Amino acid sequence: METFIVKGEVFSRMRKALGDNFSRKMTSEFGAVAVNFSKERFVKKNWKNQVLEPWKPRKRPDRGSLMVRTGRLKRSVRKMGSGVDYVIIGSDVPYARVHNEGGKSNKSVYVRAHTRKKTVPKSVNLRTRKPSRKRVDIGQNIKVKSHTRKMNLNLPRRQFLGPSRALEIRLQRHLKLTIERTITKKL
Q: Pfam families given for it (predicted)?
């Protein structure tokens, strides 16, 4: 599980100045702002701290958007918990930490027995004698025995959770606007 905690002196000062109800409301709103900031990283495909750090692009751009095949990781980012002076946002998806921090994986995986359709090239170039890339199923099935395969994965860091100066500024702006609205409403 990958988590990020929003906490600090702001919450204790806010509680002293404006009371517990206001600080509970703001804690909840800070969680929503932090979750939206994190989900925005999937759309913008970058990490925003003091400078913009773009994610490393896909090796095969024809395969679609970065890190959003099913949308499970993006949807899993949510508020995990909160207290009087902190908010925890995170993801319960098992691969969230690897995507957020990057890393290498050298594991052996078990491949179950299965069948594979036999195919042949659709045509041959008469001049070069090279087969075409398009293939045609010839109706035969080949049995593949179960085996283990060594997987060497190298995932680049594509951060979407963590401390960010840009998020702090966004939270300060949100707090300032909410306090101004509260003061003008009471007057």
A: Phage_tail_S
